[in-house]
Structures are given as C-alpha cells and as structure tokens.
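ERR on first pass: missing label on line 2. Operator R.T. fixed the label and resubmitted. Corrected input:
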Amino acid sequence: MSHATTTDVQDDRPRTTPEPRTGGLSSRSLPRWAPLGFAAVSLALGVGIGAAAGWHSRTQWGLLAALLFLAISYAATTAVENQRQAKDRLATSVVWVCFLAAVVPLASLLWTTVSRGAERLDGYFLTHSMAGVLGFEDTGGVYHALIGTLEQVGIATVISAPLGLLTAVYLVEYGKGSLAKAVTFFVDVMTGIPSIVAGLFILSIMLMAKIEPSGLMGALALTILMVPVVVRSTEEMLKLVPNELREASLALGIPKWRTILKVVLPTAIGGITTGVMLAIARIAGETAPIILLVFGSQLINTNPFSGAQSSLPFYIYEQYKVGEAASYDRAWAAALVLIAFVMILNLAARGIARWKAPRTGR
Amino acid sequence: MASTTPLDLPPAPPAPRGRPGSTGRAGDKIFIGLSRGSGILLLVVMASIAVFLSYRAVLAISKDEGNFLTTLDWNPAGDPPVFGIAVLLFGTVVSSVIAMVIAVPVAIGIALFISHYAPRKLAAPLGYVIDLLAAVPSIVYGIWGALVLVPYLEGLNLWLDQFFGWTYVFEKTEVGIPRSLFTVGILLAIMILPIVTSVSREVFLQVPKMNEEAALALGATRWEVIRLSVLPFGRSGIISASMLGLGRALGETMAVATVLSPSFIISLHVLDPGGGTFAQNIAAGFGEADEFGRDALIASGLVLFVLTLLVNGAARLIIARRKEYSGANA
Amino acid sequence: MAKRIDVGGLTAYYGSHKAIEDISMTVEPRSVTAFIGPSGCGKSTFLRTLNRMHEVTPGGRVEGKVLLDDEDLYGSGVDPVTVRRTVGMVFQRPNPFPTMSIFDNVAAGLRLNGSYRKNQLADIVEKSLRGANLWNEVKDRLNKPGSGLSGGQQQRLCIARAIAVEPDVLLMDEPCSALDPISTLAIEDLIGELKERFTIVIVTHNMQQAARVSDRTAFFNLAAVGKPGRLVEIDETERIFSNPSVQATEDYISGRFG
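pass 2 clean. output:
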C-alpha cells in the first residue's frame, strides 16, 4: 500500500509548479540576497547624500543609510510579496539596525580604551605612584591607586561575602513570614541605590562621628553596594539546589545547619563564587563613593584604616580633570588596567560557573 | 568537590558523638541566629540610610533661605545660604528620559536580535559580550564620552539644529562644544544599553517554546510570533529591565560629571551646554564644600534616593499587577 | 477544503542525527489517521514535518516530499508560513496565548491573515468555538483569559483556534496526553465530528484511543536502538488491531514491547 504511493509520488517528479496559483502554497518572493542588496544600495545613497549635503559627522550618514534601508526593504517587499511579509522584513531590518547601531559606540569604547591605554601602559606605570609628578609630566603611575582599589575592594568583599551569603541562606532555607518578605523587598531596594547615595550615607556618619576619610570608609560604601548583589545571586544559586538533596541529608538524621553547610552550600559553591566575583567586578569600578569618602591621594598609602587613599576609578577621574595630554594618557592607561581587572574577574567567574555547572546539575 | 560532598555524608553523621540531638539543636540555633541576624542587619542599614540622610538634610534645609524645591541656585556657602534642587531635578529627569527614549527600543531590538534573529553560532558569544559590556565601569564610559563622544557629536548637533531647530527643543542658541544634557542623555543611553539588553534577552529566552509554536502553527511570520507570544510574555521583564536602566541613569555620577558643562539654569534647549544632575552636582561640588555645604549636598542626595526608590517601587508595582492579570486581555 | 496528503521518501534529521527514514504514505481526506508506536520512534517528528514545524527545531531538516493535493510542501518558493496556515496543529500540552482572552485566542489566526469586520470576526469565533464543543461553556466569559480554563477546555480552545482559520488538514500531537479521562472523551468525540470537515492526523500513545477515533492506523518503530524510526505499516485501523500483516505490529499492540 505505502509502496504504491511512493512510486506515485515519484512519478510526479516534474513538479516545476510554474504558475503561482492563487491560494496555493508558493508565492512570489524576493531572492535571498535581497536584504544585502538593499543594505548596499542604502549605504551608497546615505554616503552619497551625506557627502553631497556636506554633513561632516558620519553619524548622520549612517542614520540616513539606516532609514533608507528600512524604507527600501519595506517598499520592495510590499510590492513583490505582501504586507505581512513586508512587516516581517521591516522587523528583521529594524532589529539588525538596532544591533549595528549599538555595536558602533560600544566597539569604539573598547577600541579607544585598549589602543590609547596601551600607549602608556608598561611596567613602570604599574609600579610607580604619582608622588611628585606634575600633571603635564609624562611620568608617574598607578601603583598607589592599584593598592587602594585592592584594599578597599578586599575589605568590602570580606564584609559583604559572609553577610550576603548568610542573608541568602536565611531567605532560602529559613525565611518565612514578614521578616523574610521585608528582607527580600529591601534587598531589591538596595540593589537600586545609586552609588553616590551610598557614599553620602557613610559621609553623614562621618560628619556626625567626626571620622576622617580613609580607605575603610570607601570600603563600607562599597559594601552597601555589594551586599544586595551577593544576596541576589546566592539566593538564585541556592534555589537551584534540588530539594531531594536536602531531604536525603535530613532523612539521615543530620541537623539542618550541617545539611546546609555540608550539602547545600558545597553543591552551590560554584555559582556562589561566580556571583561574588561578579559583584567584586561591579564595585571595583565605582568612583563616586571614593570621591566622597577616600578623598584621593598622589602617594602610596598602604594603610586602608587611616589617611586618604586613591583607587583606580578615582585616579582615572583625577587624571581626566587635570586636562593635560600626559594626564589623559595616564587616564586611558588606568582605564585599560581597570577594564582588564574587571574583565578578567568576569571571565574567571563565568569560567568557574561553566566548570562547576555540570556537576551541580547532575 | 561539589558533587562528591553529598556522597561523603555517611561518615559525617553524628554517630560518634554522645548525644546527637543536642549538638544539632545548638548548632541550628546559632546558625539560624547568624543568618537571621544578617537579614536584620541589612534592614537596619536600609533604615539608617534613610534616617541619617534625612537628619543631615533637615539640618541643611532648615537654614536654607531659598526654597529648597524651586530655587534656581546652589550657594550654601553664601550669606544667607540659598540652594534649591529645581535645576538638578530637571537635569536628572531630562537626561534620563533622553537616555530611556534612545536605549529602551534599541535594547529590545538587540535582545530580540540575540534571542530570535542572530545566527545561532553568533547568539551565545554575543550575549556573553553584552554581559561583559554591562560590567564596564562608568568612569570609563565617562572619559570615553568626554574625549571621544563629545567631539564626535558636534556635527550631529549642528545637523539637528539645522533641520529640527524649529522644535525649540533642538534649537542651538550657543555655539561650542556640546557638553549638553542631550549629549549626557546619549552617553547614558549607551551606558545602560548592555544592562537593559541583557535582562530583556534573558526574558525573551524564557518564553515557553510551546507559546511560540502555537503562533507558528497558526501560520505566523517570525515578527508575528514575536508580537503574539514573545513580547506579551516578556512585557513585565522589559519593564523591569527598563526600570533597572532608568535607576542607573538617574543615579549615574561619573559619566555626567565628565561630560556635562554644568550651570544652574533650566533650559529646554537640550543641545545647549548647562544644567546639572543630582549626582553630578554632588561629585562636582563636594571638594570645596564645607560641612554645611556637604549637608546641603546630602539633602539633594536624599531627593535622588527618594526618586530612585519611587522608580524601583513603580517597577515593582507594575510587575506585580502584570502578574495578577497576566492572563488578562491587556 | 480537506486535502489529501501524499508523503514520498521522507527522511528527517536533527543536525547529523537521522530521526526518521524513508517514510511514504497516503492520508485520505476527511478521515482520521492515527500514528502509534513506542516512544522515540519518530512519530511526532514525522507529524511535525507535515506542516514544516520540524525545521523550527534547531538543526531540523527534511529530505523527500510531502504533497498536499499534488503541491509539494517542500517545493522551492513555498513559504512555510503559508503551509502552516493551511495545515493546522494542536499540541501535546494546551498552549493558549496566556495574555489573550478566549475570544482573542480564537481570533488570533484570523487577525494575522487579514482584516475582518467586528461582527464577522464574532461569527467565526462563535462558529469555531461551537465546532470545538466549547461555546456553551465559555460564551459568557469570552473576554476572560484563556489560561483560566481547565486543561480540557484549554485544549478545545486550542482546537477552536486551529479550525478558525479553516485549515485543510489538522495535525494533533498527543492532544489528550495531558488531560483527564473525561476531557479525553470530549476531545475524542470532537475528533469524530471534525473529520467530516478536515483531514485529521493524530499521534497517540494510547492504543485504545487510536482504535476508537481513527479510520486508518500507522505503526512506527525503530529499526534498532540508535537507528532512525520508520513506518512499519499503515492500514485500516480494524485490520491493524485484529490482523496486522507485520509481526512487530502485533507484538506492540498485544503489549509484548513498547
């Protein structure tokens, strides 16, 4: 039976379907290269019109080309296919244009930082402070700022990681009722606090207790920014630990706190580490609280508990404000160091997440 | 390590100890105490942020000879001290609105690109790169904005003035470098793009396969699938992503401080230099402020704090309501 | 309206993995054809090649042809969107659009395919809901969300949504597997009514269901573990269940494996 059908079908082979039947399945359509063609045409038009009108900024050329591209592909598709296909193509085009429009500034940002930063970045830059260096001189380095950043971020992490971890454990493992709800809500609120407000809060304490600026004060503000991030990410990770594991352990008569310490946390440790590292990466770039609380310094101060310090982001801002060619170079170089620091943390964190993920998922 | 620990359990139980129950109970108590304590500590910190800021703000505002809300000046060191937040509020809102108008649609576009349009091999690395970009510190955006973007936008500003000057908003009355609220808005848009994209993309990827297939099986084009199932499903996610971005834009300090050429005026000519934002004013004015001046800045910071709280709260409410009516004929 | 399906030498892949191999069969119009077979034998994959949903899955591709009244679904110049508009589908789990009302769910396909006047739309929605035996249960709450209905009602809503655009063929992928027995019965009755108007193909795990609702039954099986699925035989349902021509079919039906 089925074999008979097969031969029938194959006898039908000359199925050129020449005429696009109305109501049939096939319809007229633009060739596959059409979008590329439209893009080329509109790019040429955009550049042509832009150059003819004497617009200087290529931003406008690009914008014009993008608009032309949208218009041409919509019109052509409406003419050849139909309105639905045209809308579909318009959406596709818009999405591509969005993507390309965003790539340009973000790529420029990374490219500028890397290329300008590499000019000045060397061993000398990493190992010298700005002591005695005037703004226009092209010596000096970032060593004191590096120390400041590492110490401030280190202190913030030492406080935030356990605090955030414990809070997350409370929310996931114990939390019920209004206290847990309140904590959840305010952790969300804290996530949205602008860094400058966190800085002002510590500042208000300093004003009242007559405390002088120091690395520690900056670290406390960074802690306020870091804790909610750690809580959120740890919470997500703990929720991923299957309940069966907890029950298996509890059923063995193991108390809950040991279950959490020995079963739940180890299972989620990869994800938790990732979350903490991402949080570090986030606060390492914070500038505003440092301006208010650490005050900045040209000198090496290895004691975070007393006296002004610098930090990488603060250093960038400071060098930018000096406004000399040499200080701009230093700012870019420091920006490159900062971005490298943040990126390495990010990549390492994601590496850990990937490395640990299959095991926890088993 | 992680996976072997559960297997290590059998030797771990309290067998060798004399009274297994009691150690467990004491341990449990300590552990609960610690973790609950951390939660409470967070609440205390939150409360004290509000209390301390308000206290210092009241100290400052009580001596303000101007109107804190409407005065178009910031001179707490003067005699009498006069300062008001009108300019800062205006500048903060305008620059953030510009940033949102530009960033949100583009971010949704990119998120859709990554989740539904990009070639599959490209999609995962792209998402990765976007996440990395979200981690670029704002000060780096700041110096890039000041040293690269600002000169670059000069042409665009002239062009906008030439063709859209009649709208008043885009009229350029001062020649010169565009260290304006408009430029700040564009820079903020670029800054919040990665985070809004990243959150939206995650939501779009969570749309249940069966919802998309329902649309496909009705003969929907790709765009119609997105309109019928992806966007409705992702709506609350888009809103929360946008609010997250807005929160960042409102409180952004460094990018504004480096790019804007501040002045205490309110002008709807967004292309002209001038204006200010809360965060920028605090960072810029802090250096030369005395203790009273700092209190005045804290007062303005309190307003920023409340503003971001309102935005976050609104986002939360919207999402909660969406959830409630998630099936409604919206 | 109801059209005949001719499948010739159809092979479907997921990436480099061959899921089904060289399947040929004919599905008569205005009849119910049931696909049965053990899990993983490719019957659902095959069903999804009949409206080009298979290629939506990453890596999914197809060789061979599927003729719908002599027109090849996989011919060049054929728009998969048009194919899916012509060959409706109902899924394993009811999937109404969660943000839409009952009315909008049924009208969704119509709105995609053209503009209708309000009362026209209302007529078609009512007709489709009646066709899906759901009208009486929902006529007072058409503006309520479709996700508020029970599972069985949701599945009938999905059927109403599928038949509202008047497809030529209706594919059903285990439409009752997520439902309770009473809802299942309601759907089975409905299938009996719908076959007056549509060509229906149903995948089912439940052999009693195949026996109850279908006119013809196709038995699919894996050639061996790790090998692609294939069509063992297709025949009148009565014969398949009483006197199949292949031993494997009898073994499966009598419960010796699967």
